Amino acid sequence: xxxxxxxxxxxxxxxxxxxxxxxxxxxxxxxxxxxxxxxxxxxxxxxxxxxxxxxxxxxxxxxxxxxxxxxxxxxxxxxxxxxxxxxxxxxxxxxxxxxxxxxxxxxxxxxxxxxxxxxxxxxxxxxxxxxxxxxxxxxxxxxxxxxxxxxxxxxxxxxxxxxxxxxxxxxxxxxxxxxxxxxxxxxxxxxxxxxxxxxxxxxxxxxxxxxxxxxxxxxxxxxxxxxxxxxxxxxxxxxxxx
Length: 242
What we know:
Layout: E1 4-9, H1 14-24, E2 29-39, E3 44-45, H2 52-62, E4 66-71, H3 77-92, E5 98-100, H4 107-119, E6 123-125, H5 133-142, E7 146-152, H6 168-173, E8 187-193, E9 203-211, E10 214-221, H7 231-241
Parallel strand pairs: 1-2, 1-5, 2-4, 5-6
Antiparallel strand pairs: 2-3, 7-8, 7-10, 9-10
């Protein structure tokens, strides 16, 4: 039998990476494309604030086609849903019936996704659903994934967490009120290396700024981006670039 065609709702962060990794291990699935929402004019991943060029290089490094759902600055949820619906219907016509999400435990978010998909005759796939988030965070690090904190909600955690590496020290320093995976919106990440990557992205950290009540760390590609090297050396180069 042919593998089932799937789409991945892709943010560029750790939960998306773990969900994609889980699906790629199953030969009965075939991921057709990564779908990411990009804000026009800003040319950045919506909400996460990561530059579009990093998203493009990330998809290349993973080896999966990328499709952008482009929305205007200040777009309403209705605009987002319309553009997402148009893209999903295009893929449905080509035999895709399910979309992968990296959601962990927020039932209202899952229900909303499933309701919207059901309206067009599609379904969701949630590989990480109800898994222990502390264990997921630890497993992410142990598997060799590497990521930076690119967005912080200062109402939930201190702005000083913005720009830090997602590592054991970060998890130790998080307040007990914060979810280790940031599922409540405490923070967002951008992944630049890991087992689903064919190459590592070499990044430099730029300025950290406050925009619209959130703190963002600007990441830029270094001249040594997309190095196909062993993890130890890639880690040394990334630290040197900081």
